[in-house]
C-alpha cells in the first residue's frame, strides 16, 4: 500500500547546515572501502534455505499462536502481553519480504510462495508490493532522487512531518482492506480505476511522486495471483466479521496488531537513512553514509530492525548478501578497513539518538 505522505512537507531551506547538505551527493567514492567490501563478501552471497525456512516458520508459529492467545485470553494484561509477542514475531516474519526482493529464488525453492501463503496474504502485504519497487531504491542513479520510491528528504522537512510520517502508518490496516476488498475487485469492472490502483496503490513506498509501472511476464503472473488471493482473503475477513462468524473483538485485535507492526516499521524506516539528500544523484559512498548501521553490542535493534535490517548501510554496499551473513560481513569489514575509513561513520548506537538527530535536522539544528 502506498503509505506516503502526499503533502508538501519540504522546507524551502535548511538554514543551519546548507553547505553540508548540498555537498552530500558529491562525496567521492572511497575505493578502498568498496574494494574491501567486495573482497570480504566473495563467499557470503549464497542463501541458506534451512535458515530462511526455520526462521520464518518459527516466527509464524509464535506470531499466530500469540495472536490467538491475545484474542482468547480474558485477562487484559495477559492479552496485551500476548499481543506484543504477536506483533514482534509477525513483524519479523513480515520483514522477510525484503529478503524475497533481493534473493535468487532458485537458491531457496518455494520460499516466495510459502511466505506469501503464510505471511503476505494473511497480513495483506503480498510480496509483489515490494518486488519491482525496492530494487529501484538500490539503483545507482536513482537513490535519493525523485525517482526513488523509498526516499524523501525528511531531514529537510518541517518538524511536524516526522510524527505525521509515523502516525499515518497506523491507518495502514484500513488502507489495505480498502485496497484489496474494494479497489481490487472494482478495478476489474471499472477499467479506468485500474491505472491509479497499479500506479499509486500497489507498492510499499514513501515517495508520493512515485508512479509504478505495470508488471510484465513472470512478474505479472506473480502479481495477479497474489493480488487475487489477498483480495479474496480481505473480502472474506470483512464478510465473516459482518456475519458475526468472526467476533468483532477478534477482527479489531487483528487490525491493531497489523497497525502496530506498520508503525514500528515506519519508525525503523525513519532511522534507516539520514534523509539529507535533496534530489541529486549520489555516489555509492555517499549513499552508504546516508544510511544507518546499528550493530552489536546494542540488543534492541534485533527487535525493531530484524532480519538483517540493523545493517541497513552495509546492505546498500552488499545488497545481494543474505541477512544471515550480514553480521559476518560487518565483523570482517570492521577488522579490515582503517580506523579513518568511512565505513565506521555509518554505525550508530541506537534508536533514540537517531530519532533525536533527525528531529534536530528538521529544526535546522546542526549535528
Q: Whole-Å distance between the termini?
A: 34 Å
Helix content: 55-70%
**Mind telling me the C-alpha Rg?**
21 Å
Q: Main beta sheet, described?
A: none
Strand-residue fraction?
A: under 5%
Dominant shape: globular
Let me know the number of strands: 0
What does this structure look like?
The protein has 367 residues and is an all-alpha fold. The chain has two domains: 22-47 and 124-362, no CATH class; 48-120. Helices cover 55% and strands 0% of the residues. The protein has 17 helices and no strands. The protein has helices at 18-22, 31-40, 49-72, 76-94, 96-102, 111-120, 134-137, 161-167, 172-189, 191-200, 217-242, 248-270, 284-289, 301-304, 312-317, 326-336, 351-362. Helix 2 (31-40) crosses helix 16. The chain starts with 17 loop residues before the first helix and ends in a 5-residue tail after the last helix. Mean pLDDT is 92; it is low at 1-22. It holds the Pfam family FA_desaturase. One of its GO terms (molecular function) is oxidoreductase activity, acting on paired donors, with oxidation of a pair of donors resulting in the reduction of molecular oxygen to two molecules of water. InterPro entries: FA_desaturase_dom, Fatty_acid_desaturase.
Amino acid at each position: 500500500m502506498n503509505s506516503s505522505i502526499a503533502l508538501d512537507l519540504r522546507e524551502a531551506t535548511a538554514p543551519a547546515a546548507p553547505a553540508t547538505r548540498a555537498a552530500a551527493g558529491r562525496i567521492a567514492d572511497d575505493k578502498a572501502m568498496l574494494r574491501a567490501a567486495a573482497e570480504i563478501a566473495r563467499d557470503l552471497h549464497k542463501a541458506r534455505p534451512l535458515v530462511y525456512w526455520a526462521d520464518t516458520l518459527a516466527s509464524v508459529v509464535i506470531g499466530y499462536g500469540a495472536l490467538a492467545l491475545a484474542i482468547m485470553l480474558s485477562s487484559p494484561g495477559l492479552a496485551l502481553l500476548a499481543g506484543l509477542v504477536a506483533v514482534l514475531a509477525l513483524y519479523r516474519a513480515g520483514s522477510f519480504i525484503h529478503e524475497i526482493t533481493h534473493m535468487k529464488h532458485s537458491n531457496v525453492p518455494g520460499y516466495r510462495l510459502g511466505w506469501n501463503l503464510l505471511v503476505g496474504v494473511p497480513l495483506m502485504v503480498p510480496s509483489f508490493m515490494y518486488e519491482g519497487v525496492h530494487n529501484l531504491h538500490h539503483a545507482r542513479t536513482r537513490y535519493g532522487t525523485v525517482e526513488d520510491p523509498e526516499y524523501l528528504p525528511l531531514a529537510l522537512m518541517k518538524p511536524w512531518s516526522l510524527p505525521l510520517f509515523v502516525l499515518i502508518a497506523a491507518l495502514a490496516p484500513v488502507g489495505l482492506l480498502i485496497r484489496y476488498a474494494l479497489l481490487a475487485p472494482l478495478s476489474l469492472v471499472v477499467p479506468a480505476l485500474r491505472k491509479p490502483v497499479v500506479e499509486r496503490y500497489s507498492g510499499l513506498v514513501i515517495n508520493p511522486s512515485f508512479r509504478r509501472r505495470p508488471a510484465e511476464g513472470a512478474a505479472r503472473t506473480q502479481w495477479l495471483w497474489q493480488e487475487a488471493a489477498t483480495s479474496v482473503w480481505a473480502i472474506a475477513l470483512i464478510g465473516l466479521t459482518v456475519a458475526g462468524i468472526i467476533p468483532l473483538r477478534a477482527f479489531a485485535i487483528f487490525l491493531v496488531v497489523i497497525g502496530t507492526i506498520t508503525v514500528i516499521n515506519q519508525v525503523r524506516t525513519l532511522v534507516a537513512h539520514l534523509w539529507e539528500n535533496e534530489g541529486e544523484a549520489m555516489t555509492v559512498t555517499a549513499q552508504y553514509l546516508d544510511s544507518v548501521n546499528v550493530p552489536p553490542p546494542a540488543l534492541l535493534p534485533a527487535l525493531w530492525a530484524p532480519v538483517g535490517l540493523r545493517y541497513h548501510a552495509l546492505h546498500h554496499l552488499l545488497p545481494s548478501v543474505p541477512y544471515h551473513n550480514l553480521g559476518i560481513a560487518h565483523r570482517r569489514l570492521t577488522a579490515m578497513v582503517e580506523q579513518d575509513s568511512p565505513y565506521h561513520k555509518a554505525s550508530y548506537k541506537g534508536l533514540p539518538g537517531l530519532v533525536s538527530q533527525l528531529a534536530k535536522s528538521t529544526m535546522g539544528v546542526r549535528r
